[in-house]
Write the structure tokens for this entry.
Amino acid sequence: MQEELKNIESCAIEDIKNTNTSEEIDKVRVKYLGKKGELTKVLRGMGKLSSEQRPIIGKIANIVRENIEQSIVSRINNIKQEELNNRLKGEVIDVTMPGQKITLGKKHPITQSMDDLIGIFTKMGFKVVEGPEVESVYYNFEALNAAKNHPSRDMSDTFYIDENTILRTQTSPVQVRTMEKTKPPIRIISPGRCFRNDTPDATHTPMFHQLEGLVVDKGITLGDLKGTLEVFAKYFFGSQTKIKFRPHYFPFTEPSAEVDATCFKCVGKGCSLCKGSGWIELLGAGMVHPNVLKNCNIDPEIYSGFAFGMGIDRLTMMKYGIDDIRLFYENDMRFLNQF
Ligand code: FA5
């Protein structure tokens, strides 16, 4: 029996050596140590041994089992390491391979224009101030000297939330909010969204963007307004640009004007963009009405000011020759990628 045990051990160790995978080594374990395994079979026959021989053979059998188990464990460790090495070899990461390209987004053309405008005016010393888009009727109309029967206050022009609250139709309420809080000298711009009950067409959308400007100080004149807007137009459209004032009416400025710029495409000669006139309408402007100054507790005998308001969407259309404002809001990447 001693012989037989030694024989099982050497056969098992030889079989273990020849295994190459975890599955193969499992089979060897079952073959020798399993319930019907070769060593188990021999141990079952120990009952036939004499009481002197049994402990001796039992001890040898235990050593054989331990040896087989140990060589199984060490072979398993080797196989696992080999399997891991093989897997790692197959999964080598080539750090020199080109990565997946992530396409970078860019700013919407209106945001680009807004940034350009903010850059131009802050260089001239203007501070950026923001105001609420949901505004009171008082700030949007009353404080801006708009009479109760002014057509822009109509439900068909303005989105009402309740009797006293609207979506602002212009950025001009920021003028009043600023003058209430700040004493002159004041020099601010206020860009932001505005809302009007306008049917969408090539030049109108119900939501659009404006940029308001306001300067209040002692001795501010129409000349200051003209100089400021000239600098703005030259920076935004090009140094050859000229501007002109046409008389107009706004309840909150007196005198008021619509300001035109020479067409940046034909430089004043007349083309399809400016409909042959050589000029393009730019913005509304004027000297702050004394009533508006009074509404904000600023003495119009001491202080004067100018204000202007421009539509950023339309300025962007002019700058890039875009013929339909709705293109800005269709999220078509073929259009947006051009800017
Ligand atoms: C105003 O809103 C005045 N608050 C501007 C102003 C400010 C005048 C300070 C004097 C002093 P107006 O209603 O003209 O003015 O609008 C100004 C600009 O907003 C227009 O020239 C146009 O560019 C833009 N705009 C108006 N309605 C729309 C619309 N539905 N869609 C796109 N742009 C619009």
